[in-house]
Amino acid sequence: MTTVKLHDILWRTKNAGASPDDNRRTELYFAGCQKALSGNPCKDCFNPALWDNKNHIPHNVSEIVDALDLHKIPKHITIVGGEPTDQKEGLIELIDLLYKRGYETIMFTWRSPFWIRVNIGVSTLKKLAYTICGPYEEEHRIYDTSRDDGIHNAIGSDNQIIVRYAGHGVFETIPVSKLDRVIYQDGKPVFCRKESES
């Protein structure tokens, strides 16, 4: 069984995306970011403590999901970092197991939608409710914890792009700059555009 290095788990936070449970989600922080360690971190990165994962203990993927099951949390997971895709094998296995056990999962990555599709794979991306792609850019910052809308209290900057599977082999890309909030209808996320973008 594959392992991943986690930095922390926030069991119930309102700053990790929308959910039908009053916007509460459980957040899994992957340790390590090769982009930052190579000398090219996102400017004013939120999580510099997560750049180096050499002192983090590997955890078996199945044990992580067993722990989530044991806590009987609402089944809404957010995967963040560090950079989750730097632990690609474990990430793919984790997403697959979360999907099989009925969790709805979203993921944050600094990488591009194209990179994600090629390197993580379409079959894995289909198992995510959506993915927030692109580096955090301080000059485009929108992060504001006072706004409980699933966009501003979760996503760092509006240069980022949301990618989700729309069915029939098609992936939809939505610029964060065009969005006002995320709501849930019939258990599925719905992206509400700003009035000027309607």
Mean pLDDT: 91
How much strand?
Answer: 25-35%
Main beta sheet strand tally, sense and closure: 8 strands, mixed
Separation, N- and C-terminal Cα atoms: 46 Å
The rough form would be described as globular
Individual helix count: 5
Radius of gyration: 16 Å
CATH class category: Alpha Beta
Query: Which fold name is given in CATH as the topology?
Result: TIM Barrel
* Helicity level: 10-25%
The CATH architecture designation is Alpha-Beta Barrel
How is the largest sheet built, in terms of strand order?
A: 3-1-2-4-5-6-7-8
Helices and strands, in order, run as EEHEHEHEHHEEEEE
Give the key terms.
198 residues, alpha/beta, TIM Barrel, eight-stranded mixed β-sheet, two-stranded antiparallel ribbon, 5 helices, globular
What is this structure, in a nutshell?
The chain is of the alpha/beta class and 198 residues long. The protein has helices spanning 34-37, 61-70, 88-100, 113-119, 122-125; strands at residues 3-13, 25-30, 58-60, 76-80, 104-109, 130-133, 161-167, 170-175, 179-185, 188-193. The strands form 2 sheets. Strands 3-1-2-4-5-6-7-8 form an 8-stranded mixed sheet. A two-stranded antiparallel ribbon has the order 9-10.
